[in-house]
Design brief:
Length: 53
């Protein structure tokens, strides 16, 4: 099957679609398991300049 944007499509059974979209754990758990969890990152938001867009 080829949609209008020429990107291939995949057809899944409802059972397979549910299996692929089910969440495993919470966002917090996912972030805690990240390799960057112990990295010393500066995550402060800059408030001095307006956002683009």
């Amino acid at each position: 099957m080829q949609p209008r944007n020429d990107k291939p499509s995949v057809v899944l059974s409802p059972k397979e679609a549910r299996r692929k979209t089910v969440r495993v754990g919470t966002l917090a758990e996912f972030l805690m398991k990240s390799p960057l969890c112990d990295a010393d990152l500066d995550v402060k938001r800059q408030r001095d300049e307006p956002k683009d867009g």
